[in-house]
Amino acid sequence: MSSTTEQATGARTWSVAEHLDDILTAVQPLEPIELNLLDAQGCVLVEQVTVPVALPPFDNSSMDGYAVRAADTERASEASPAVLTVIGDVAAGSSGTELTVGPGRAARIMTGAPLPPGADAVVPVEWTDGGTGAGPARTMAPHSASPQGSGGQVRVHRPVTPHAHVRARGGDVCAGDVALEAGTVLGPPQIALLSAIGRPAARVRPRPRVVVLSTGSELAQPGEELAAGQIYDSNSFALAAAAKDAGAIVYRVGAVTDDAETLRATIEDQLIRADLLVTTGGVSVGAYDVVKEALTSVTEEEPEAREGEAAEGEEGEDAEQAVHRAHVDFRTLAMQPGKPQGFGTIGPDRTPILTLPGNPVSSYVSFELFVRPAIRAMMGLADLHRPVVRATLLPPHGAGDEEPAPLTSPEGKRQFLRGTYTGGERPEVRPVGGSGSHLIGALAHADALIVLPETVTKAAWGGEVEVVLLG
Ligand SMILES: Nc1nc2c(c(=O)[nH]1)N[C@H]1C(S)=C(S)[C@@H](COP(=O)(O)OP(=O)(O)OC[C@H]3O[C@@H](n4cnc5c(N)ncnc54)[C@H](O)[C@@H]3O)O[C@H]1N2
Ligand code: MOO
Question: Which domain of life is it from (predicted)?
Answer without folding.
Answer: Bacteria
